[in-house]
Specification:
4-stranded antiparallel β-sheet, mainly beta, 400 residues, 5-stranded mixed β-sheet
Length: 400
């Protein structure tokens, strides 16, 4: 016997396929719609220049250097402009290469890094001086003599001259530090015999805005303090040198790794009071491969103990380090100091950026796995500035 369904149930059964098709169509429409952009996917602004070095101040102003190449009498030299960006469309150039280092003589400079003072009113410019190669002046004199001979013999073959007209690249000279205010006015050390602080690297202004600390020597390094206004200069921690030094300028201190402070000659992580020259041992180190970095609060410090593992020490309890496997590179800290943002590999190579959880070991990429040449997290932790490969356009993103 055949079961007869009520009319409404038969209608539902007949309508069911059509309803499913309609629902599927609506779902497909939603799937085809692009996902809404997250805030982190859209940059706050971009600086469309070749930003080879940059730093972010406490008020989020960005100082950056742009290389300018110049040809002078067959010599190619680099001299860099410096600008400050205070937000979208708010850019002012504070150093113009042609005015900062006029020609002649044929000399240039390459900016290696820039460092804001804690008060955001001064800048330390760490650079490599660039000059003519050995014998350059003699070669120019010989060419001038040849030109005079050619005037006497117009039939002389000029093919050799066309080959010699290829430009000669400038060669790197010594390292030096230039000091500027935030309007680009140069601050010179009183009584100094040279324009810049020569033979110096990794310079920084200290908390008072009138004293500068820097490293001297080719490594291990000595620490030197200078007051430009009166030229007073002093080598700190006399007799001791350090393999690695990072600054905590707002607190007039530094952290260093070295073996000259230990009676047994073993590697030690120390805290250095730059005002009173006090040394505080934090912990002995069995192995150190680089990457020393201080957290924003100044209460934690991290480094690579080998080519794969980050050690994090709480300065209040340094005997219990946190260790996380992440891969070697350069890292900076999140605002809550529970993660670090890591770019793996050499500093001069582009790569993706990874959040590495210090306490849960979780690793996650940001900004769609795009590769970047360099990055800086703003002091407040709310944004990140990155430069892209190739022409190093600088982009600023909100940081989550």
């Amino acid at each position: 016997m055949r079961t007869v369904l009520p009319e409404n149930r038969r209608t539902w059964k007949r309508a069911q396929p059509a309803s499913l098709l309609a629902a599927a169509a609506i779902g497909a429409i939603f799937l085809l719609q692009p996902a809404p952009l997250r805030a982190q996917d859209t940059p706050k602004f971009a600086i469309d220049e070749d930003c080879q070095a940059f730093d972010i101040s406490a008020d989020n102003s960005i100082v950056y250097a742009v290389p300018r190449m110049k040809r002078v009498k067959r010599l190619i030299i680099e001299r860099d402009d410096i600008s400050i960006s205070e937000g979208p469309g708010k850019v002012r150039r504070i150093v113009e290469a042609d005015k900062f280092m006029p020609i002649p003589p044929p000399a240039g400079y390459v900016i290696d890094s820039l460092k804001w003072s804690p008060d955001g009113k001064h800048i330390a410019v760490n650079m490599t001086l660039q000059g003519a190669p050995p014998g350059y002046a003699d070669k120019l004199a010989q060419e001038e003599a040849k030109k005079k001979e050619k005037k006497k013999d117009k039939d002389k073959d000029h093919e050799e001259d066309r080959e010699e007209d290829l430009p000669i690249p400038g060669v790197g000279g010594g390292r030096a530090i230039a000091l500027l205010d935030d309007d680009g006015r140069e601050i010179k050390v009183a009584g100094a015999k040279t324009r810049f602080i020569e033979g110096a690297v990794n310079g920084t202004w200290l908390a008072d805005g009138s004293t500068v600390a820097y490293l001297s020597g080719g490594g291990p390094y000595a620490i030197v303090r200078v007051r430009p206004s009166d030229g007073q200069t002093k080598t700190l921690f006399e007799g001791h040198t350090f393999n690695t030094v990072i600054w905590d300028a707002k607190n007039n201190r530094a952290f260093a790794v070295g073996d000259s402070l230990s009676l047994r000659g073993r590697l030690t992580l120390v805290q250095l009071d730059l005002e009173h020259e006090r040394v505080t041992e934090i912990a002995p180190i069995e192995s150190y491969q680089g990457g020393l970095s201080l957290s924003p609060s100044g209460t934690k410090i991290g480094y690579f103990e080998d080519g794969d593992t980050i050690d994090v020490l709480d300065l209040a309890h340094p005997g219990k380090p946190v260790r996380v496997r992440a891969g070697f590179g350069r890292f900076e800290w999140s605002r809550d100091e529970r993660r670090v943002l890591l770019k793996r590999g050499p500093e001069d190579r582009s790569n993706i950026l990874l959040w590495v959880g210090l306490y849960d070991g979780k690793i996650a990429s940001i900004l769609h796995d795009l590769q970047f040449r360099d990055f800086r997290i703003a002091p407040g932790g709310e944004s990140i500035a990155v430069t892209v490969p190739g022409k190093r356009v600088l982009k600023v993103f909100p940081l989550q």
